[in-house]
Amino acid sequence: MVRIFAAISLFTLATVALTGCGSGSAADTAKPSPSPAPAITSDRAPIGTSSAAGELAGLAAAAKGRDYSATYELTRPGDKPVEVSVELAADDRWSVEVPGGAQGGKADVTIARHRDFYVQCVEGKRDSCARVDTKDDKIPSTIDPVVQHVFTDWLDVMINRSSPISVAYAEDVKGVAGQCFWLERNSVTVSSPIPSGVYCLRSDGIVTAAKASFGSLKLKGEPGSGPGKLTLPDADEDATPLGTSPPPKPSPSKSKSKKPQ
């Protein structure tokens, strides 16, 4: 009986010893908890979230219907800066003077919205403007100086949350106020309705800067009051809009052959 009890005691001690030499307690074998995610110190959402698109839509909506006049500095790639004058009326008429906006930069033009159509006026000939024939209310690319879209129809694209663009916050542009955004086409579309680039707007809807393929645009000074109802000249039915490409070079004249003496 004593031997049986001793054997049981030895077996119990061996079992306890083996348990103590095992793989360790639950606290020792548990995986370390992951480090907490870094806190977002900015009061804005991270770049690339829908918050940027929502804020842009709100600012663009404030810009629609604004009645103001302003001057912007436009710098095209490889060119010197020029001043672009913008007049926006509450009745959806507008006028944008674009130095070098036609004939490869050799002609200054004004592109304007006149009731339900567009006109192009050549500098110095404002009383004789050509009507611009459009398709689906779009100015043909052969005539389009582009920069006026920043203040007009591109705002509609920014407002529409279903537009095929991706929106993110961008760094501020030096020397201008407002919130800046980076816009580009999203992954489900081949082309974007707005050129990829940076667009900046103030809280009151004033466009303060833009930088894309057409060049760099910056607001100069404080915008003034708008024209109320913008008065534009009627289109001359016989006038033809100037194209954006340089005019064709004149063909060399054929020299007259001299008659033999």
Give unreliable regions as ranges. Answer: 1-48
For CATH, the homologous superfamily is named as Lipoprotein localisation LolA/LolB/LppX
Give the number of domains.
1
Largest sheet: 12 strands, mixed
Summarize the model shown.
The protein contains 4 helices and 12 strands. With 261 residues, it is of the alpha+beta class.
Overview of this structure, please?
This protein has 261 residues and is of the alpha+beta class. The protein has a single domain (50-233), classed as Lipoprotein localisation LolA/LolB/LppX (outer membrane lipoprotein receptor (LolB), chain A, Clam), CATH 2.50.20.10. It has four helices and twelve strands. It has a twelve-stranded mixed β-sheet, covered by helices on one side. A hairpin with a 5-residue loop joins β2 (82-88) and β3. α3 runs antiparallel to α4. The longest helix has 19 residues, at 2-20. The radius of gyration is 34 Å and the shape is globular. This is Lipoprotein.
What does the secondary structure layout of this molecule look like, with pairings?
Elements: H1 2-20, H2 26-29, H3 50-63, E1 68-75, E2 82-88, E3 94-102, E4 107-114, E5 117-122, E6 129-132, H4 153-159, E7 165-169, E8 179-185, E9 197-201, E10 207-212, E11 215-225, E12 235-236
Parallel strand pairs: 6-12
Antiparallel strand pairs: 1-2, 1-11, 2-3, 3-4, 4-5, 5-6, 7-8, 8-9, 9-10, 10-11
